Amino acid sequence: MIKDMDLWEQTFQRIIREKKPHHRWKLKVDDNLEVKSLRPGWKQYTQKGLARFRCSLCGRSWVSAQVLILFWMCLKEPYGRVKMRVFAQRCQRCSTALFEEPEFSPEGIEKILGCLVVRILLKCYRESAGAPVPREDPLREILVAGPHDAGNCEACLVGISCPSQSDGKVSKALPRRPHNSAQYQQPASKRGKLLLLLSLCIVIVFVVLMVTLGVTGLL
Ligand SMILES: [Zn+2]
Ligand SMILES: [Zn+2]
Prior knowledge:
The protein contains five helices and six strands, in the order αββββββαααα. By secondary structure, the protein is α+β, with helices and mostly antiparallel strands. The chain has a four-stranded mixed beta sheet. Strand 5 (89-90) and strand 6 (99-100) form a beta hairpin. The longest helix is centred in the last third of the chain and has 54 residues, at 165-218. Residues 66, 148, 150, 153, 155-156, 162 line the site of one zinc ion. One of its GO terms (biological process) is protein insertion into membrane.
């Protein structure tokens, strides 16, 4: 179960009622929600949020900006339903760690649900909200740029990838390095072979000259 569900529900009601005061929307948690099994009439939306985790075994806490939240949305006027699943993460240090539920700040919840309502207006009402999409905060950008521990991320383990920017950079940069050095070695070794050939020619010419001189000297 997600922590602070009351806060999620209250925040969602406040934002959606501002936009659609005559429609009744409900937000519910569904831990069995999957990306691939979307039912007809439902729209899907995934978002990443910033949250804190605490390991229940060792007490270590960590912050992740790659906490995946999956939403399903369905409108049958005047009623609307949202199902959400928040994906958990495991502690890196404990080998027998359990998946821990994320803890979002009230500002984080506000931001996530603000984006969700913009998506509801777009996908269910075909309205462009006109509202600016909330900007990423600097801390989130730094954390997104950091490596993502896919082995301890529930979303990654069930097949919803959370690619991080730095992961991409590393995988692209690594094969290039030996390739580049090989490219620079090739002209150098060719030059070496040419020099060896040239010096060999000089030696042969010198030997032939000496032999010729010796022969003519003898004659
Ligand atoms: Zn731990
Ligand atoms: Zn992941």
